[in-house]
């Protein structure tokens, strides 16, 4: 068999999917090649035949059957190969050699020139000619990719749009939190359009030597114009694009020169030159306003964290090449991972695959995904504490959090209570099911926030009730920090106190080097400061009071839960609720 991937002959009718499955099971199949891009499997029969069978995006059946019958299965990304095969044999090769040689000659001729201007002696930015990423590899960002399709169709046939008199965007800014697939999207645009892709991180521009950043920008644009239509992608553009005049130690620094050069170049190239500038950032708020002017990055595309459906799709994309056990329901895992970015979801399945291999298993089961989730959210697990009394105290503390949560109407539902310490020194942990609605909408109610205070103090409350005020530990210090931070925000930012509906702090008072450094003094009177402190303390006290009064009458329940927790080390939702004797998730029935 030469190259099974380019097997073109079709033996009459395609065999049915179930026929292929049973053939694999019967050992008639020699090997399988999975091609995720095409969503198909090439089935190579022992008798020399081979056929292609289309599969669904997240088709696990064939992966599983192959694993079960020990049929060798390889996953192929054929995009690169197809491109090479497309070059017609030897002639192509000779051409490459000639082009390569003349390129080398040119380069060496340039060396002398470059030695003079050290700006250009920087390693050149090379374009990636064939980008293998497609839109289908980027899941859960449908709105974003719809807008970007326009860019793609321009790059594919610039003349057509130009003839129509259409105005094409020059610069598109992708804005979103880390790991949401901005870089991936940029590559997908290049891949879909089949154009060269110049990519570099903005921090690479900013070199130690003055003038180098700007000259790299010039160099980049010169190259790009030669290769048009093409894409220039500047990752983390905030590294150069920050508001000018914001730097400490004089404004006219290297970064500014680089930015100015970037702006000049953007103005300099014509609207329809076929070069499209893409940039990504997670801090659009700090970008220099000059970057956003019409004719520059005038189009902004928000890439947000995926919602539940998006998470399901992203998991499916990454499950295409990983055999999952029948029991694994990706939509359940999408439900359990609110707030996860695409990168974190990819990592989740990757970790699970590693654990599966380590356990000498062939299929990824819920156990591995669960372990991977824990490892990602909490760090590595270690052995439970040996000291009985400390273990008991930790158990009461964690049960305190969990029980308070299950007795508080607005609080998140308990997912898991554990006394297995995690690396990073947490003695135990209580994990909650985050509220999907809140995470997706970004809106929280006063009642919800207060319940968070109560739950956070539930650990300390249990310690007080069981061991007395002298025996409480500093183990709750992390909880206390959270309480202070949250309570302060409630008072100063959300207007959730008797100080009224006023914002008493510069938004989040995140100090951003330079500009804000000068103005970090609070914008309220000293007496207001005192009032804020008093309000914060009052919130904390009333939350602790509520936790104590919830747990007070539940001593027996706590004891029962603690015994079970010490015995079993981890309690999941059902076990916890049944031990606590709570039917409804929130104890209100
Ligand atoms: P960003 O540039 O926004 O920080 P990346 O594009 O670098 O994020 O994403 C890192 C990795 O996470 C990707 O290579 C991919 O494996 C995964 N990933 C992120 N977002 C998605 C998505 N929407 N769909 C599929 N995979 C994703
Ligand atoms: Mg990125
Ligand atoms: Zn705690």
Short descriptors:
589 residues, alpha/beta, Signal recognition particle alu RNA binding heterodimer, srp9/1, Rossmann fold, Helicase, Ruva Protein, domain 3, 4 domains, 6-stranded mixed beta sheet, 4-stranded mixed beta sheet, 49% helix, 11% strand, disordered C terminus, binds adenosine-5'-diphosphate, binds magnesium ion, binds zinc ion
Brief sketch in words of this structure:
The protein has 22 helices and 13 strands.
How would you describe this protein?
A six-stranded mixed beta sheet has the order 5-7-8-9-6-10. It has a four-stranded mixed beta sheet with strand order 3-2-1-4, covered by helices on one side. It folds into four domains: 4-80, Signal recognition particle alu RNA binding heterodimer, srp9/1 (2-Layer Sandwich), CATH 3.30.720.210; 124-302, 3-Layer(aba) Sandwich (Rossmann fold), CATH 3.40.50; 308-378, Orthogonal Bundle (Helicase, Ruva Protein, domain 3); 388-580, Peptidase M41 (Methane Monooxygenase Hydroxylase, Chain G, domain 1), CATH 1.20.58. The chain starts with 16 loop residues before the first helix and ends in a 9-residue tail after the last helix. It is of the alpha/beta class and 589 residues long. α5 packs parallel to α7 (182-193), α16 (388-407) packs antiparallel against α18 (446-467) and α19 (477-492) crosses α20. A hairpin with a 4-residue loop joins β2 (40-45) and β3 (50-54). The model is unreliable at 1-12, 80-95, 109-121, 247-251, 507-519 and 585-589 (pLDDT under 50). The chain contains 22 helices and 13 strands. The site of magnesium ion has 4 residues, from α7.
């Amino acid at each position: 068999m030469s190259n099974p991937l380019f097997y073109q002959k079709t033996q009459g009718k395609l065999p049915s999917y179930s026929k292929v499955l049973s053939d694999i099971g019967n050992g008639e199949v020699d090997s399988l090649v999975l091609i995720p891009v095409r969503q198909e499997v090439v089935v190579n029969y022992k008798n020399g035949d081979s056929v292609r069978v289309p599969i669904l995006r997240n088709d696990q059946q064939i992966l599983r059957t192959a694993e079960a019958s020990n049929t060798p299965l390889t996953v192929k990304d054929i995009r690169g190969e197809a491109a090479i095969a497309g070059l017609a044999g030897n002639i192509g090769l000779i051409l490459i050699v000639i082009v390569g040689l003349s390129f080398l000659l040119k380069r060496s001729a340039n060396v002398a020139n470059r030695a003079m201007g050290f700006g250009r002696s920087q390693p050149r930015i090379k374009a990636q000619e064939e980008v293998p990423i497609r839109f289908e590899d980027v899941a859960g960002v449908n709105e974003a990719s719809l807008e970007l399709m326009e860019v793609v169709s321009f790059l594919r046939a610039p003349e057509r749009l130009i003839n129509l008199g259409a105005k094409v965007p020059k610069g598109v800014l992708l804005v979103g939190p880390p790991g949401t697939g901005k870089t991936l999207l940029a590559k997908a645009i290049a891949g879909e359009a089949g154009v060269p892709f110049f990519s570099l991180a903005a921090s690479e521009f900013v070199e130690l030597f003055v003038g180098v950043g700007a000259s790299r920008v010039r160099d980049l644009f010169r190259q790009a114009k030669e290769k048009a239509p093409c894409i220039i992608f500047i990752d983390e553009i905030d590294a150069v694009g920050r508001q000018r005049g914001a730097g400490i130690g004089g404004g006219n620094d290297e970064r500014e020169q680089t930015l100015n050069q970037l702006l000049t170049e953007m103005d300099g190239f014509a609207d329809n030159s076929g070069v499209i500038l893409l940039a990504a950032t997670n801090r659009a708020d700090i970008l220099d306003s000059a970057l956003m002017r019409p004719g520059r990055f005038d189009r902004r595309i928000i890439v947000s964290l995926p919602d539940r459906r998006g998470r399901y799709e992203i998991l499916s994309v990454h499950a295409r090449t990983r055999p999952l056990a029948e029991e694994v329901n990706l939509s359940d895992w999408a439900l359990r991972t609110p707030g996860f970015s695409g990168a974190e979801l990819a990592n989740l399945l990757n970790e699970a695959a590693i654990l599966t291999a380590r356990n000498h298993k062939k299929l990824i089961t819920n156990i591995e995904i669960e372990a991977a989730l824990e490892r990602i959210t909490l760090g590595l697990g270690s052995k439970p504490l040996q000291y009985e009394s400390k273990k008991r105290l930790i158990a009461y503390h964690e049960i305190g959090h969990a029980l308070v949560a299950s007795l508080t109407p607005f609080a998140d539902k308990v997912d898991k209570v554990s006394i297995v310490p995690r690396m990073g020194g947490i003695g135990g942990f209580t994990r909650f099911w985050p509220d999907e609605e809140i995470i997706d909408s970004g809106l929280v109610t006063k009642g919800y926030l207060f319940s968070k205070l109560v739950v956070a103090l539930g650990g300390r409350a249990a310690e007080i009730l069981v061991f007395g005020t002298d025996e409480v530990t500093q183990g709750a210090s992390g909880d206390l920090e959270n309480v202070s931070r949250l309570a302060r925000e409630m008072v100063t930012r959300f207007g959730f106190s008797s100080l009224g509906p006023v914002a008493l702090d510069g938004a989040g008072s995140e100090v951003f080097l330079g500009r804000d450094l000068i103005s970090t003094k609070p914008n309220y009177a000293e007496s207001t400061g005192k009032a804020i402190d008093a309000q914060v303390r009052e919130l904390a006290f009333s939350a602790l009071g509520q936790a104590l009064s919830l747990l007070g009458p539940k001593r027996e329940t706590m004891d029962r839960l603690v015994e079970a927790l010490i015995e079993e080390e981890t309690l999941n939702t059902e076990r916890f609720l049944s031990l606590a004797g709570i039917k409804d998730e929130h104890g209100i029935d």
